Amino acid sequence: MQQVKFIDLGLIDFKQAWDYQEKLFDEVVQIKISNRKLSPDTQPQATPSYLLFCEHPHVYTLGNSGNKEHLLITEQQLIQKNATYYKINRGGDITYHGPGQIVGYPILDLDNFFTDIHKYLRFLEEIVIRTLAEYGIESGRSKGETGVWLDAENPLKARKICAMGVRASRWVTMHGFAFNINTDLGYFGNIVPCGIVDKAVTSLDKELGRKVNEEEVKQKLKKHFADLFECEFN
Length: 234
What we know:
- By secondary structure, this protein is an alpha/beta fold.
- It contains 5 helices and 12 strands.
């Protein structure tokens, strides 16, 4: 049973959390590089795994394959909205993070789990799908698009509740998922979310018609993460 260190960073500046991710990511990668230089009779050092949860102040992030034009407001308007913007080193296009959204950053050495990025992304989606099911909400995937969707098969009703974008190097992961819980969806109006122009965005509180206990959601996410990745938190 793999051990994963769980850390809840609370409300934290995006750049501060990104730097922390990079620090943990680099430490895991360096262990793997050192292990490959060992002689065959030397015991390699185990690589640690982490799951970080946090919320960010209002911020827009653009992935490697994103289009800056999908940010629909100027730098001055960003300031007026008390929001920041970063071009970052994950996959995907532009998305929004803000209070009321649970952001999950798994930093895993997939050599300890499975070396399949496609499977890894499907597992992250499944964690959210199973969590939503506990609230009586049926969700799923949209063909050719990552993340978790409601009514994905109906173009007139399709809406995204969880965005995803990851980075992986030497089978070590970082970045992850952003799950809208009690999120101010108005901020998504300032972007073309994930570069998708014809589908809406939603949140758990909007779907349920009530404010949701975020700590309760975190516990459900952790449970499904542990089940799928066959790990224990420490």
